[in-house]
Design brief:
By secondary structure, the chain is mainly alpha-helical. The protein contains 9 helices and 2 strands. Helix 1 runs parallel beside helix 4 and helix 3 packs across helix 4. The longest helix is centred in the middle third of the chain and has 23 residues. The radius of gyration is 16 Å and the shape is globular. 35% of the residues are buried.
Length: 197
Amino acid sequence: MSIGGTSFTLTNEVIEMYIVFGLRKEKVDTETVLADEFSKLDMIDSMSDRNFLDFFMKIFACMCRIDLALFRLSTTDNNGRFFTGRHLFDSQPACVGFMVAASQKIFGRPGQHRGHEHQLHATSSIVNTSNLLVSTINALTPDEFDEFLKFDVLNEALSKKTQKIGDFERAFFAEAFRVFFSTDEEINSLEVLWRAY
């Protein structure tokens, strides 16, 4: 399945995003997650909410709209892993971070429960923030891409060598998107996200 510039393998990436959205944490071993009792309880709690799938679909749609907007952007610096807008959500850690940050804003951290009114308000806030970002991206001229994307800062931040790169990147993007979802203001550069971790 392909949306914008991002190609998803339905049986892997989207299911993983659904699981992390339900568990509200970025570190998930999809093969053993349901064997863990606490994970089972978190998933049951999340999925017992009759609006869970609707929330997931709204957040997934936000990510896709941002991806479509970013698709046309590229930087003049081709060094590093990220140099075009479409590369952002080609990265599964970025997708996972987006979903986890959104889920935590809606439902709270694992073990926490927020009421339905809060969930509706948080989801609406995420949709509004995402739409504002898409509008900002669509208004950019090619000369403004580098200053907006700041992929040089992102590539530098991700260049830190750690034993578990995937875990580091998931935590990095989860924190970046927590910052994104915590603001109601227009973002004039993604650098504020990339420097959050």
